[in-house]
Design brief:
This protein has helices at residues 12-23, 25-44, and strands spanning 79-89, 93-103, 109-114, 135-137, 143-153, 167-173, 185-191. With 197 residues, it is of the alpha+beta class. The longest helix has 20 residues, at 25-44.
Amino acid sequence: SFEVGYFHLGSCYESKLAVWLADLPELVLSIFNEAATYLVTKKMYPHYGNVHKEIRVRIADLPVIDPIREFRQAHMNVLVRIEGVVIRRSAVYPQLQAVRYDCTRCSFIIGPIMQRGDKEVKVTQCPSCHSKGPFRVNMALTEYRNHQTLVLQEPPGKVPPGRLPRSLEVILTHDLIDRAKPGEECEVHGIYKNSFD
C-alpha cells in the first residue's frame, strides 16, 4: 500500500467533510480515493498508474467506538468503529468488480459495468444493436477484487454477566485481506450494512 499522508480534520471546511464522511461514507470515500489517486499521487508520480490503478484512503481513529451489542437501525450505512476478537476467517475469494459482457448477437463488448454491494448489476440492452440479450460475461476483460469475511465477536471483558457474546460479520476487500487471524483482538473502521439474502 502507499501512504499519501495524514490529513487532520480541524478547520470549518474540513469539519463539514468529517460530517459528510460519517453520514455518507461510500460516496465520500470514493471521492477521497479519486482525489488521492489523481490530484495527489499522479501529480507527484505520473507513472504510478503502472504500479497500482487506484489509491484507497483509509480512515483511522474515529472518536467513538460503537459496542457490537448496541448496533441498531441508526448505525445503518454510516461509518462505525468497533472492537472485537476474530473468531472465524474465510478463505480469500475473487469477487466481480468491473464486468464486461459480450453481446451474442453482434459481438459488441459492453462495459465496464462497476459492481457495488452484494447484488450483481446486469446489462439489459446492447448499446450497439439494441438487442435485449443474451449476454455472456467476457472472462478475459472482467476485473476482480479480493474478498474475505471475518466474524468479529465482542471482547470477553465487555460482555454483560449472564449474556452470550454477540458478533458481526466483517467483509474485507482489496488490500485489507489477511490482516487479522482468528484469536486476535482488532479494531475495525467500516460501513455498517445489512444484506438481505
